[in-house]
Specification:
2 helices
Amino acid sequence: MEKEFDAVKEMRSIRKKLQKEYEKNPALRRKRLEQIRRKYRLTRRTKENTYH
C-alpha cells in the first residue's frame, strides 16, 4: 500500500539537502543555529547550566 505522504522519507531528503549546504558552508550552520537560539531564547548547554 502506497502512502499518500511519507514523513520519514521527506525528513531524510531535508536532512540530506541541509548536509550538502553545510558541507559547502559550515558557518551557515552556526549562523542558523544561533538564530534559532535567539528566537526561542535557548542557551547552550555547559557544565554550569546542566542538571544532574
